[in-house]
């Protein structure tokens, strides 16, 4: 990174000293107990989307959410899909010219197994040490409930909202959201909005409100190297026949250069640099490589030379081998010269890289590195575009103000190395910016036993999201 | 290879015009039918050493062979081992000063399955188109029987043999010969001999008698590369954590240089060049790369630059990947950054390379190529020394004369890319040179359904082996 001072295009901190509006804060305090009680009810419904034996429960969770939204004054509908239903709630009585905010969440949960590793049963919510334990507490019922309570505060304390609001909750997030993009496409006019807000992520650390500013995309392939028509005896044929496993290893070894950069020609051509201020902010985050190495269980880290760990994970594209198989892999020794060798290879992408372009670059690369005597075929398996937020827009300014007011400090800007395809879908179809602001915490066990959400984060998150609407009506 | 004429240390052809002694030839012709009938009897015994339900059959085959040797005038004994028995027959009435020849073979056979792929049942010998079909016909009962008939010819036609003879037949060749080396060690004085003769291999092509002059050795390893303590999400961790599968691929890619040579430092230091005459002879063999590629099913061959295919297979050491496993290898895509990656890697060795030295070289190599962030462990699994015949000795001169007399043309010198550890054991323990002369043919299905041996090869092989004793009494 250049050490010279560059023009900071992104306002990272705000001097605004706004506090949570007193009426909303009072209403939320007064209704804290009943709100928590309602959330417990929601969490008790085992809406496991992956299990057909829970289909009735999943439908029940949709109906429950519909009722909760109706109760606070929303017009609601449960839409059937080819899978689990989509719940849509609308409130459109804001003053003329007010923006429309779409809140997305999901009411389905991961399977709870293995059950014996839960301290208290997954569908019997329990609070211990300030943590609310239940399947779905943080992923995502609890975070969706933060928004419902924020809306309830406005409508309860003031009888109105400063913006129009659409709540869209799906029941298939944990099984791939296959019917969501088609639903958004089909109802694009009805779902038209100015902003999308999603709370389904975590904060960088306790007490540090976090805005997720980027997601990596994905281009996943299977490479199959084929040599002789059948497995051969490595003694009788070894030395004259090209070994597909060895050829594959040599091919994979060409995918990075000596500095850990991906070696496909043109791979970085479309990489748009992250704003200097964002990178500077990431470097200030309380990250420890020593702790990270300990967590992962390694003595040294790798990757691109000259980048920090968080930069590598959040802002840089990668190439990884996800799987590899050839020849004899059982116990002992078998002297086989294998006929085929397979590798699963995936690339994480950053804006403005494109999975289809990456496929083309990989094909060209293979053409130059596959040795005579074997053939390589490439099977594209899975793709997703990377995403990056426009941190300068009014949505992010509003989020910064609201989060600071609720948590008492400026939010940090974080990235995410994984991919959430639905974010790109919202932006692409609805042409509205997406805000990813989550209230989970590291170690929350989102897909594991003893999933939890911080009760304090639920309270502060609700206040922040309630204040967000005021900020969006009148952006700083 | 140098094009200049080098001193030919090996006499490749012989001007001797000796023919098969008439008395032996006559006796063999007269006893052809009964000899074949006896061989059928031997082949009918399903002595499958790998199957305990055939243990009684295996013992019966040993007893049958003992009886056959006794019948022609040998002193015989069946020795029990920890596995299947060893049959030893001795005839020691040669004139004082005559050499002693040890003939090794095996009376056990491979399992016959899959039975439905046999044209005639595996243990009901049948002759079709000059081929004798049966399990064990070529591997190795038929080839062992060639020797018994050759001995019978001498004792039948002349009542004596020009040399002392020991026949040693084991019943565990198809299951690893685990008890053979200990047996030879234990009975080294009893088995002391001047020459060892083994017929358990194939001729280069029909009508071309062949002497096997070399075997490659083996050094087999498992390399395990370990990275993070558990599998990681390739999105959340990819780019900062060293990927063990990628690291393994890069390690494997360092094992060869760009000319296809093994890149371990010092790997070729102990490679003793093959005699120029042997290499010259191999280049004259009727080998076709086009046919070889078709047989193997590839469009191009590989391996060491500047060597012919037969040179690569028979005279050069190799490094092959025999197996490779890491991460997710099932259907579809899983975005895992694997915790471990494994490869089975083996080296074929040529004289005077040593498996233990190769292990040391590989360890040193790994020390220099394993990147920080992963560790590699090396597990040696299997080793065997390479072997090369001294083609200049009286044993080989005798074999050339005898084979030419029987087959009407000079034998060719061939190599074998695989390993037969017992050959080295005989040389090491008994300090006697070993002659490998086989009468199988390409396509003989040694370990497959429809195993066969050429009836003509049995007849000519028997004559050649009968004449061998005359030649050894009085080497050219």
* Weakly predicted, low-confidence segments of chain A: 1-15
> What is the CATH class of the largest domain in chain A?
Alpha Beta
Instruction: Find the structural class of chain A using helix and strand composition.
Output: alpha+beta
The percentage of residues in β strands of chain A lies in 15-25%
Shape of chain A: elongated
Oligomer: homodimer
Largest interface, Cβ cutoff 8 Å:
A-B, 78 and 78 residues
What's the N-to-C terminus distance of chain A?
31 Å
CATH homologous superfamily caption of the largest domain in chain A: Zn peptidases
Q: Outline of this structure?
A:
Chain A is an alpha+beta fold. Chain A is 33% helix and 21% strand. Chain A contains 14 helices and 18 strands.
What does this protein look like?
With 476 residues, the first copy, chain A, is of the alpha+beta class. Chain A folds into 2 domains: 22-214 and 386-473, 3-Layer(aba) Sandwich (Aminopeptidase); 217-271 and 317-384, Alpha-Beta Plaits, CATH 3.30.70.360. Chain A is 33% helix and 21% strand. The first copy, chain A, contains 14 helices and 18 strands. The first copy, chain A, has helices at 22-30, 32-44, 55-71, 141-157, 180-186, 234-237, 244-253, 276-284, 289-296, 309-315, 355-369, 394-407, 421-430, 455-473; strands at residues 75-79, 86-91, 100-106, 126-128, 131-133, 164-170, 195-198, 210-215, 217-226, 232-233, 318-327, 336-337, 340-349, 375-384, 387-388, 412-416, 434-437, 452-454. In chain A, strands 1, 2, 3, 6, 7, 8, 15, 16 and 17 form a 9-stranded mixed beta sheet that branches. Chain A has a 4-stranded antiparallel beta sheet with strand order 11-13-9-14, covered by helices on one side. In chain A, helix 2 packs antiparallel against helix 4 (141-157) and helix 4 packs across helix 14. Chain A is elongated, with a radius of gyration of 25 Å. The interface between A and B is large, with 78 and 78 residues.
């Amino acid at each position: 990174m250049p050490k010279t001072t560059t023009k900071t295009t992104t306002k990272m901190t705000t001097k605004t000293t706004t506090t949570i509006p007193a009426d909303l804060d009072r209403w939320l305090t007064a209704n804290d107990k009943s709100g928590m009680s309602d959330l417990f009810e929601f969490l008790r419904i085992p809406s496991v989307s992956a299990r057909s034996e829970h289909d009735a429960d999943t439908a029940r969770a949709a109906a429950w959410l519909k009722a909760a939204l109706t109760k606070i004054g929303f017009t609601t509908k449960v839409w059937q899909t080819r899978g689990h239903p989509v719940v849509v709630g609308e409130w459109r009585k804001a003053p003329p010219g007010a923006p429309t905010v779409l809140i997305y969440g999901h009411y389905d949960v991961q399977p709870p197994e293995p059950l014996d590793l839960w301290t208290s049963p997954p569908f019997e919510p329990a609070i211990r040490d300030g943590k609310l334990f239940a399947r779905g507490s943080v992923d995502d019922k609890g975070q969706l409930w933060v928004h419902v309570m924020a809306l309830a505060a406005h409508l309860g304390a003031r009888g109105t909202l400063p913006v129009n609001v659409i709540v869209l909750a799906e029941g298939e997030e944990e099984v791939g959201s296959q019917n969501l993009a088609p639903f958004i496409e089909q109802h694009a006019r009805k779902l038209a909005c100015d902003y999308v807000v999603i709370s389904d992520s975590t904060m960088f650390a306790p007490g540090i409100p976090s805005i997720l500013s980027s997601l990596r995309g994905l281009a996943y392939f299977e490479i199959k190297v084929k040599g002789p028509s059948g497995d051969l005896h490595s003694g009788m044929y070894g030395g004259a026949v090209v070994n597909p496993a060895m050829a594959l290893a040599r091919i994979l070894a060409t995918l990075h250069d000596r500095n850990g950069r991906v070696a496909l020609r043109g791979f970085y051509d479309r990489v748009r640099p992250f704003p200097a201020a964002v990178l500077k902010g990431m470097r200030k985050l309380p990250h420890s490589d020593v702790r990270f190495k300990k967590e992962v269980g390694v003595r040294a880290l790798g990757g691109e030379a000259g980048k920090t760990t968080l930069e590598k994970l959040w802002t840089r594209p990668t190439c990884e081998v996800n799987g590899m198989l050839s020849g004899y892999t059982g116990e002992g020794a078998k002297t086989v010269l294998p006929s085929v060798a397979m590798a699963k290879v995936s690339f994480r992408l950053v804006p403005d890289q494109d999975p289809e372009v990456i496929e083309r670059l990989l094909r060209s690369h293979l053409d130059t590195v596959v040795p005579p005597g074997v053939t390589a075929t490439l099977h594209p398996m899975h793709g997703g575009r990377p995403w990056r937020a426009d941190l300068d827009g009014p949505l992010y300014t509003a989020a910064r103000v609201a989060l600071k007011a609720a948590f008492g400090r400026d939010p940090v800007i974080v990235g995410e190395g994984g991919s959430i395809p639905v974010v790109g879908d919202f932006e692409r179809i609805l042409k509205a910016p997406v805000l990813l602001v989550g209230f989970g915490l590291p170690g929350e066990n989102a897909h594991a036993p003893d999933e939890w959400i911080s009760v304090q984060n639920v309270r502060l998150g609700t206040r922040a999201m309630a204040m967000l609407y005021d900020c969006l009506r009148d952006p700083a």
